[in-house]
């Protein structure tokens, strides 16, 4: 079809994703001491813009954009945090319940990890 555009959707956390990325399954990485702590990968290049964060994961060619609360999640990942801590920080920042943001946090962590932009620590 001429003029047909591939549709994209934004998760509730404002990460621009394809419909395939939204369907990713989540497999938690768990250490013997409990939940993994996630942190931005040191090799990821990123820059703040007035409304977003643009990230280029180490070894990739395609940058991606985090907007809205996705930007807040990326900034929080400057410190090693587990999923519960990330949910708590975002829920507190946006005045909502942790349960409300949990699925989106999990989805974004999975996507960022798949893209090579995160590193997990015990």
Describe the secondary structure blueprint for this structure.
Layout: E1 8-10, E2 16-18, H1 19-22, E3 30-31, E4 34-35, E5 37-40, E6 45-48, E7 52-56, E8 64-67, H2 68-76, H3 83-94, H4 98-114, E9 118-121
Question: Structural class, judged by helices and strands?
Answer: alpha+beta
Tally of helical runs: 4
pLDDT averaged residue by residue: 78
The rounded distance between the terminal residues' Cα atoms is 49 Å
Task: Pick out the low-confidence regions.
Answer: 1-12, 15-33
What's the CATH first level? Answer: Alpha Beta
**Which second-level CATH architecture applies?**
Alpha-Beta Complex
> Could you say how many structural domains there are in total?
1
* Number of extended strands: 9
What coarse outline follows from CA principal-axis ratios? globular
Strand residues, percent? 25-35%
What Rg do the Cα atoms give?
15 Å
Write up this protein:
The chain has 122 residues and is an alpha+beta fold. The protein has a single domain (10-25, 32-115), classed as Outer Surface Protein A, domain 3 (Alpha-Beta Complex). The chain has four helices and nine strands, in the order ββαββββββαααβ. The chain has a three-stranded antiparallel β-sheet. Strands 1-2 form a two-stranded antiparallel ribbon. A hairpin with a 7-residue loop joins strand 7 (52-56) and strand 8 (64-67). Helix 2 (68-76) packs across helix 3. The chain is globular and about 35 Å long. The model is unreliable at 1-12 and 15-33 (pLDDT under 50).
């Amino acid at each position: 079809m001429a003029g047909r555009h591939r549709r994209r959707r934004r998760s509730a956390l404002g990460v621009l994703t394809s419909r395939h990325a939204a369907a990713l399954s989540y497999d938690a990485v768990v250490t013997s001491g409990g939940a993994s702590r996630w942190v931005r990968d040191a090799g990821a290049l990123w820059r703040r813009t007035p409304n977003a964060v643009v990230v280029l994961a180490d070894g990739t060619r395609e940058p991606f954009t985090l907007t809205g609360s996705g930007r807040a999640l990326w900034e929080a990942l400057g410190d090693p945090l587990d999923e519960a801590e990330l949910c708590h920080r975002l829920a507190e920042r946006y005045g909502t319940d942790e349960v409300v943001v949990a699925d989106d946090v999990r989805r974004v962590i999975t996507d960022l990890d798949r893209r090579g932009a995160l590193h997990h620590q015990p």
